[in-house]
Amino acid sequence: MHIAVIGAGAVGLAIARELVREGARVTVLERRHPGAGTSATSFAWINAHLKRPASYQALNRAGLLAHHALHNDLTEGPRWFVPTGNLEWAADPAHATALTAAAAAVEEQGGTVERLTADQARALEPGVRIPAGVESAVLFADEGYVLPGEFLGRLLTDAIAGGAELRAPAEVRAIDAGADGARITLADGTELAADAVVTAVGRWTEPLLADAGVHVPMADPDAAGGATVGYLAYTAPAPVRLNRVLTTSTLNVRPDGNGRLVLQGLDLDPAADPGAAQQPGPGSPVARTLRDRLAETVVGGEYAEIEQVRVGQRALPADGLTVCGFTDDRRTLYTVATHSGITLAPALAPMVAAEVLGGSPAGLLADFRPTRFTPGRRPGTRLAQARLPGEQ
Question: Which UniProt keywords are listed (predicted)?
């Protein structure tokens, strides 16, 4: 069976890797280069505890466990997943209430939660500066972070070693899917025939599928201050001791290898504008704010230098939930679109591969089918920025 996978981000490459492992012939089409889309601007925190509703939290927990399984199966090569947990504390009452609820929800689903005193948290991460008045913290021990480049490299090399063909750059202009297979037209006029097509193109999902007569509405990825955009700041090697994801009321930070850090301040994201003629640089106000927050949060942060600020554009279905499934009963065109791509990729891959190759539907995907959308209508869901500390 010949499967065309459109999109070579984390989700597309994970699916391609799984399909070749199941014996399919696979062609991956990517309009620029692997990882050029959303995967290149992800905080890459592997977590489930902030996800709602319960079915989405369960799906993300499956992703988290799949990362652990892949990590444990490795016998050689670089490790893309760092399963050292997520340490979180709350400096305001609303955040403290939300953190308590999140910890209970994780425990209900079988996750490991450690409730720490402030002194225990400092012993675990000697470099942290926990504010006065904060007496406790929570360690979500099952969580971790991914080094996106190494993760994508592993997926890509495994897929190609298994026989997948990568065509990049190869921009898809049209998909004609019928009961007897699909025909894909590329921007250069060439055509490719396949038994089935899987789209994993992130924020480009809506226009690509619309040309194929399929309605999967996505939140506008270019809307300044909208739910899809946010800042990420990257430091030069810094004298900071940090072993895990750290989330606080003002700053999220994780290691990025070789002493570098990735910083995120969710309350700053409403100012992000991917269409701005001049994007914020290392000396911009947002960079200075994030660096000041880092100095307040970890020892040595005051000596860190911001090398780059990126405006990430999230792939976010219009109702806020993952899309995963066949677009109609012909079982020729399958689509995946999700805000949680790096977390979900290793869990979605075997479920998608099984369904595309004729297996039974995956129970975890029941709430996330693309057929939930009414043609010609957009969901009335109000999508805000990524959930801020203290929000339910």
Answer: Oxidoreductase
pLDDT at 52: 83
pLDDT of residue 109: 86
Q: Clarify whether residues 203 and 155 are in a common domain.
A: yes
What does the DSSP 8-state code read for residue 268?
G
> Which pLDDT band, with edges at 50, 70 and 90, does 77 fall under?
low
Question: Per this entry, what is the length of the chain?
Answer: 392
User: pLDDT tier at 305 (50, 70, 90 boundaries)?
Assistant: very high
**What is the spatial distance between Cα 40 and Cα 202, in angstroms, rounded to a whole number?**
12
On whether residue 49 sits in a domain, the answer given is no
**202 close to 37: Cβ distance less than 8 angstroms:** yes
At position 379, the amino acid (one-letter code) is: P
Are residues 119 and 155 both part of a single domain?
no
Same domain, 139 and 236: yes
Q: Are residues 215 and 90 in the same domain?
A: no
Quick one: how far is CA 245 from the chain centroid?
A: 15
Same domain? 269 vs 217: no
The DSSP bridge partners found for residue 181 are 178
Taking only the tens place, the pLDDT of each residue in 360-380 is: 999 999 999 999 999 989 998
Can you give the C-alpha Rg of the chain in angstroms?
A: 21
Q: Please state the domain count of the chain.
A: 2
User: Do residues 148 and 39 make contact, with C-beta atoms less than 8 angstroms apart?
Assistant: yes
The pLDDT tens digits of the residues spanning 23-44 come to 999 999 999 999 988 887 889 9
- Nearest CA to 6 among 138, 194, 247, 261? 194
Tokens of 259: 């002493």
